[in-house]
Fold this sequence. Notes:
- By secondary structure, this protein is mainly β.
- The chain is built from one helix and nine strands.
- It has one helix at residues 17-31, and strands at residues 4-5, 39-42, 48-55, 61-69, 99-106, 112-118, 123-133, 136-144, 147-156.
- It has an eight-stranded antiparallel barrel with strand order 2-3-4-5-6-7-8-9.
- Mean pLDDT is 76; it is low at 3-31, 188-205 and 218-224.
Amino acid sequence: MTFRSIGSAFRVSAWSAPLVGLAALAGVAQAATPADPSGTWLTEDGRARIRLEKCGPSEKNLCGFVVWLKVPLNDKNQPRIDFKNPDPKKQARPSLGHQLILGLKLNADARYEGKIYNSEDGKSYDVTVWTEEPNELTVRGCLIAFLCKSQTWNKTTDVLPGQLTGPTNGAGGPRTDPEWTPAGKPAATGTTGTPGSTASTAPKPAAPKPAPKPAAPAGAPAAQ
């Protein structure tokens, strides 16, 4: 995931100060009603589609999942896995369907901020996301406070081959990290092991109980 640098120098003259003040007030008013960024977004480099949706307690957080990859297979023609993850338990998980945006929270500017995981280097970064245009999402990532870059993601409504369209943690859908799994729901359903597969492993039916033997008539000899 590649970000571009943001920020530029500018001057504010004395006569323009009132206009700046009005713009600041307008920004505060706009921040009071944040736009909902839920939906599926194409990353700026075109290599992935990310589905954003509300999560966490009372669905006040924002989580994001990789639901499509332009190149889903590695050099060995096998599904890509998160082998650079610092957690050994996650290094074998498929790249398609993993959670990369981890429960962002609204900040004072009514933008969502928190952590984003980059599977390309196995590192997590501070991130802020917001949308001001119906079909554009600004994603601003920071390695450190003064080293921040941004991307513009575009909203998508179509479905491409290989795209996960099922519900989160359901058949044919992405998977949450354990800390963001809704209470009472498993982190992932049983599948055939193929990312995007909708075939689930159904529980085996319980064996039927044998019918009770009829009571012997009174006075009859007991069975040997």
